[in-house]
Hints:
Blueprint: E1 11-16, H1 20-26, H2 28-36, E2 41-47, E3 62-66, H3 72-82, E4 86-91, H4 96-105, E5 106-113, H5 121-126, E6 129-132, H6 139-149, H7 170-177, E7 190-193, H8 206-218, E8 222-225, H9 231-242, H10 246-251, E9 252-254, H11 261-268, E10 273-277, H12 280-287, E11 292-296, H13 301-304, E12 322-325, E13 328-332, H14 355-358, H15 362-371
Helix pairs in contact: 1-12, 2-6, 3-4, 8-15
Amino acid sequence: xxxxxxxxxxxxxVIALRYLGDVLLTTPLPRALRARYPDCQVDMLVFRGxxxxxxxxxDVRRVFTIAERPAAGExxxxxxxxxxxxxxxxxxxxxxxxxxFGLAAARVRVGLVPxxxxxxxxxxxxxxxxxxxxxxxxxxHENERVAALLGLAPxxxxxxxxxxxxxxxxxARLAAEAPGAPAFDARRPFAVIHPSPRWRYKQWHAExxxxxxxDLHARGLQLVLSGGPGEAESRYLDSLLEGLDxxxxxxxVRIQGRLSLAELADLLRHAAVYIGPDTATTHLAAACGTPxxxxxxxxxxxxxGPSPAIGLDQPWAKAxxxxxxxxxxxxxxxxxxxxxxxxxxxxxxxxxxxxxxxQLATATVVAAAQSVLPPAGTAQGGGA
Length: 384
């Protein structure tokens, strides 16, 4: 494989200035760099608040963080900190800030640029070999194109974070974090349910979540309810729980906002099943090897479908009622030809509803969950 590098790099910077899921899907690049160049020290630059996706990542030496909307002084300080400190910078995103920091960090830069020339001319000139971003290509495969410029092997292994929490430590850990919740045993079958995405337009209906929780409880699974720490998510989960029957509600272990991403990854590794919408936690579950049900609506799976633990060798199709890749099952409700529309819901804004998710039947999701679980009353999953 031909490389654009004249010599073996000693220091490399990978820039991932987007959301949590994007940071996770960028981890194949440090893995591929270290596989080819074991002595290379790889650092990453990410938005502050997303660095948890890199906790104890064995391929990353140091993580730099910057605010999502940094003041001019913070940008200048970061440029000074990075200035010509690296042999190569990988910029797998077309935005202005990633390219600016890449330009400062290294003399050799590879990465992606927007397909439209426009004001992006300087990004093209700044790269040793600019690649036009393909709006229909998965993020992992886009990163793989960047890796190929450096002569690296296929970069498809997503590396989840870890807090090194052992399976037998979870009983005490969750008892402390969720006082009053039922006793939990990670060696018994349990489901992790993550109902609330960051934005409303990716949300499945409340009736579906309640029906799913009731079915999983009836099958004897322990119920772990996950979610972000925000107030809006708390209110949404409160409303879901209030609508459950007493027995199901009392069986729920609510860990929303109580675990770090690395701790959550350690817990997910033992789950019998995970169910969630298009959110970073769904990507995390997929990368951890958990049997994962991903409920997709407006988002195009070809770009943003979860990457299974074995790697995404076969791309996701644009639209299908049910697709399987490795440990991941993706469900879509094809209500109209517009699915997936790649818009922010039917109203075109983040607080909007999405018909394709509102019409995804509870029975469809319950059946998919049952397909990865042993018959009711016989499940032996969880813990290894």
